[in-house]
Amino acid sequence: MNNRRVYFISDRTGITSESLGESLLNQFENVHFKKRTYPFIDTVEKAETLLAHIQEEVEEDKDWDRPLIFSSIVDRDVRKMINDYPAFHVDFYNTFITSLEEELQTEARRLTGVTHGLRSEESYDKRMEAVNFTLNHDDGITDQGLQNADVILVGVSRSGKTPTCLYLALQYGLRAANYPLTPEDLSSDILPRMLQNHQHKLFGLTIDSERLHRIREERRPDSHYASLANCQKETARAEEMFHRYQIPFLSSTHKSVEELATSILVACKLKRRF
């Protein structure tokens, strides 16, 4: 098998180089990648130290092929140093900024921290307010202020509600609450009391029962809660409830949290708040 070390390098958080690099690498399922992310490489000295470390790793295992580097570095000297290292290098900054400068016929500012930095206090405050709302309305903790929710995710325990809500809050500034369907809820023909006045904001998450069984086994091994039969019963009844009350829903079985959040955004016609 083709084995490659992968280094995501950035002068800020590394989110850009990691996200773009991952999306490219996901297209190559027959290659084994060993990945590392190095944020805040914003001086020549830091770059020298990092490249020396990379070289040590490369020399430790000669069986691995040439390493891959995905970078988003603004400083020309730091970028040149990384570009000069003998690796396959995808320089996102140079690839896109240089072409845009030519097209727009003007030079870019070349400032660090303008991708994921704190550029707008108002936007940041909206994101943090949404995250706080989501944390305060996780797992049906309270119905106080629930009328202010943009969306309320409903589903059985461990179907992916909490991470999806947090992603919606952090990435889109949406006030996302969630409610876990209990065995009592699932044995009733009535929508749970907490949700009855908010049916128009509900969105369901379901999951393959065998996948749910494996997830729950890690949490509570050999319990009724985690048994395959119980997982089959709960998911079936949850989907019956979604159909009964015409609640739109998706399966989280083969979807990432990013895909779930984006699908919910589109299905519920929600818009980014910042």
Task: Write structural notes for this entry.
The structure is a single chain. With 274 residues, this protein is of the alpha/beta class. Helices cover 44% and strands 17% of the residues. Strands 2-1-3-4 form a 4-stranded parallel β-sheet, sandwiched between helices. A 4-stranded parallel β-sheet has the order 6-5-7-8, with helices on both faces. Helix 1 links the parallel strand 1 and strand 2 (31-38). Helix 2 (44-60) packs parallel to helix 3 and helix 6 crosses helix 10.
Would you kindly provide a brief summary of this structure?
The protein is α/β, with parallel strands linked by helices. The chain contains ten helices and eight strands. Strand 5 (151-156), helix 6 and strand 6 form a beta-alpha-beta unit.
Identify the CATH architecture of the largest domain.
Answer: 3-Layer(aba) Sandwich
Strand order of the largest sheet: 2-1-3-4
Q: Which percent bin holds the helix content?
A: 40-55%
> How many angstroms separate the termini?
44 Å
The poorly predicted ranges are: none
Tell how many strands the DSSP assignment holds: 8
Structural class category: alpha/beta
Topology as a string of helices (H) and strands (E): EHEHEHEHHEHEHEHHEH
- How would you sum up the global shape? globular
Count of individual helical segments? 10
| Largest beta-sheet characterization | 4 strands, parallel
Task: Please indicate the count of domains.
Answer: 2
Radius of gyration: 23 Å
Mean pLDDT: 92
Query: Could you please say which CATH topology of the largest domain applies here?
Result: Rossmann fold
CATH class assignment of the largest domain: Alpha Beta
The share of residues in extended strands comes to 15-25%
